[in-house]
Amino acid sequence: MRHYLAILLLPIIFISCTESTSSIGIFPETDDIANSNAIYDVVTQSVLLDSVVYKNSNNYIGSIKDPETNTEIKANFAAQFHTFEGYRFPDKALLFPDYPNGNLEDSVECDSIDLQLFYNGYVGDPNNPMKLEVYPLSFERIIEEDSTYYVNTDLEYFVDDSTKPIATKVFTAINYSVSKEVREGDKYTNNIRIALPKKYGKELLNTYYDHPEFYKNSYTLNLYFTYYEKRDSARVGGLYRFAATPEVIQSTNFSNGNLQQLVEDKSCTYLKSPAGIGTEVTIPVNEIYRNHLNDSISRAQLTLTRYNSNANNEYKLGIPKYILMVRKDNVVSFFKNNKVPNDQTSFCTEFNETYNTYSFENLGRFITYCHYEKLNGMKKSGLSEAQWEAAHPNWNKVVLIPVSVKQTTDANGNSSYAAIAHDMSMSSTRLVGGTNNPIKIQILYSRFK
């Protein structure tokens, strides 16, 4: 019981003692302004993040089990390939063994074709064997360039279901077929090479010669062929590369197991990425304004304390570095429309490793915004307070979501957010809170005497 009470007291200790929050104390009173403060309960709960827009250059394949929560994360990857602009295959005549007397009406052959997946890191035991299967995408169900896709999009829908896997590969994250000296060299990049049936290379070659316009406008799909140089009729090898890059269509589908069990835990809340769990926070706007209608909210601070992981495992997931606070009704539109925090209805904060917390320093503008939004809504609609709140059940709710952040700095050294996206790294943490365990928000009021 002593351990339990110590954890619950951490947010209060943090609020009153840390240097970073010392300014939340009572401001010196003047002859005209009186200050007061109060602390209110805040209810939090875990929520599933299902409509997560996938806008990220990082992609994943494979599966891993989170040792802390025992949940499994699986990832599938789909991509369409493009050609380098202006690239041309050799003249068709050069690909025939009896050049220059070959029949140019015949189809050409390729020597081999393979798929290379380059990666810059991995999560979990690098020696665990994994099996990878490659399927062709359907020509009827196309991944469209101008469409929005989510991490729970079923990528198998776009697969040509009339075929079996065209290739399989069993591999480990560390490629022991390459020497350690080469693997650790500057020129080596981790990759998985999968040999594909030669018929796909043959089809690509012959399509080019039949319809070169398809190729007018990539280094992960390699096509090898042999042709003849005109100079001395020597046989030489040719290589053509097609690439899947962030500029063209690629997407990762994530599926998480056992998340519902974590969401139903009332003794804490969770933050899990990619596309796992967020924490919903209900701000007690009515309680904060009760008996303070003539006061201004000078400061409002909410601190969330992280439970240390009890998983004794070297492969446990990392801690989300940044979290976004955004109104519950605005979650999807925020990411879909590439918005950044405005410090009124959306906020971002960074994990504090020293105090093991996430802290939102000033939510005063948000609380005031919600209060007057309700008052103006009631006036415009003619609804009572209870009726308006029933019609807008999420009016005072926000969701905390792990995010990745890009910042810019101006000439004066002031930083600002340039882009916010869902965090697609493998991370997980457990927070003090839950419907059975309210956390605290501290409010500082000011009033003219």
What does this structure look like?
With 449 residues, this protein is α+β, with helices and mostly antiparallel strands. The chain has 8 helices and 20 strands. The chain has 2 domains: 258 residues, no CATH class; 179 residues, no CATH class. The strands form 4 sheets. Strands 1, 11, 12, 13, 14, 15, 16, 17, 18, 19 and 20 form an 11-stranded antiparallel sheet that branches. The longest helix is centred in the last third of the chain and has 18 residues. The N terminus is likely disordered.
Enumerate how many helices there are, as a single number: 8
Low-confidence stretches: 1-27, 227-236, 245-249
The helix/strand class is alpha+beta
Give the CA-CA distance, first to last residue.
Answer: 45 Å
Q: Tell me the β content.
A: 25-35%
**Main sheet makeup:** 11 strands, antiparallel
Provide the succession of SSEs: HEEEEEEHEHEEEHEEHEEHEEHHEEEE
The average pLDDT is 80
Keywords for this entry:
alpha+beta; elongated; eleven-stranded antiparallel beta sheet; four-stranded antiparallel beta sheet; 2 domains; 449 residues
